[in-house]
Amino acid sequence: MNRGVEDVQDRVVLITGAGQRLGAATATRMMAEGWHVLVHVRSSVVEAQQLLDEAERQHGESRGSLLVADLTKDDDLDRLIDEVKNHPLVKANGLGGLVHNASFYSQGAFEELNLETYRSLNRLHMEAPFHLTQSFLPDLERAGGSVVAVVDTSWGRAWEGLAHYTSSKAGLRQLMLNLAGELAGRVRVNCLAPGAIMAADWEAEHFAKVLEKVPLGRSGQAEDIASGVHFLLTNGTITGNVLHVDGGWTLNE
Ligand SMILES: NC(=O)c1ccc[n+]([C@@H]2O[C@H](COP(=O)([O-])OP(=O)(O)OC[C@H]3O[C@@H](n4cnc5c(N)ncnc54)[C@H](OP(=O)(O)O)[C@@H]3O)[C@@H](O)[C@H]2O)c1
Fold first, then answer.
1. Domain carrying residue 184
2. Sheet arrangement for strand 97-100
């Protein structure tokens, strides 16, 4: 039976790469909204456990579970899928949301990029979301659920030293838009494109220059991404959308 999006209780969302930074903010927001969050991490086990403990302390009950997997490894992916499908709330109600957030952001001149690095990014940004979405389709349909992929604002332009990252993110965006059409009426699929929100360690200096080009003149907050994901997961009329949360950055690029 399809459940309405307003039935929050017992709704489950899987968020990949949710141990820290933007994924952690999204997990925290969804737990505060009453969802049960399957917090996936690759290595941020301690941070994710702290997040879950803090939510339990605040809300007086457990609001999530921790799942560990390297999404570039087929065996890990298959184990993760089994664990999610066997979760009691997923077995009972299906999967209300699937958020493809995990990512790896690095910079490198094209001549120096290693083919294995590129394959690994394609696995993380495209193949894992493909496999997870396909595997959870019956569970998402059963819950009246939806998918959100966290992409970025890079497509259609050239970016110094980011060929591997931007092209794999563009593939993810196109995969999601295609699925929005193909799965329409069964599962909603959307993307959220953050602008310059939270700098990686290696780009702090460059980040300040980027912010000069943002019409709002500032970076957003992790909570802005979290509220955007919550909006896309809960607005039952939106599919095939790319929501820019970027302070207007795309207007000026
Ligand atoms: N930060 C920004 O301003 C910005 C701008 C544009 C777009 N975005 C997008 O927004 C999302 C969140 O951004 P972020 O900066 O918070 O992301 P991030 O810190 O770069 O990555 C999020 C998580 O992805 C996980 N991850 C990396 N490799 C993995 C693998 N092989 N298998 C499984 N998980 C893996 C890591 O988990 P562990 O820590 O557990 O290893 C990491 O914590 C990303 O999709 C990013 O591309 C961010």
1. 12-242
2. 64-68, 36-41, 12-15, 97-100, 146-150, 188-194, 242-245
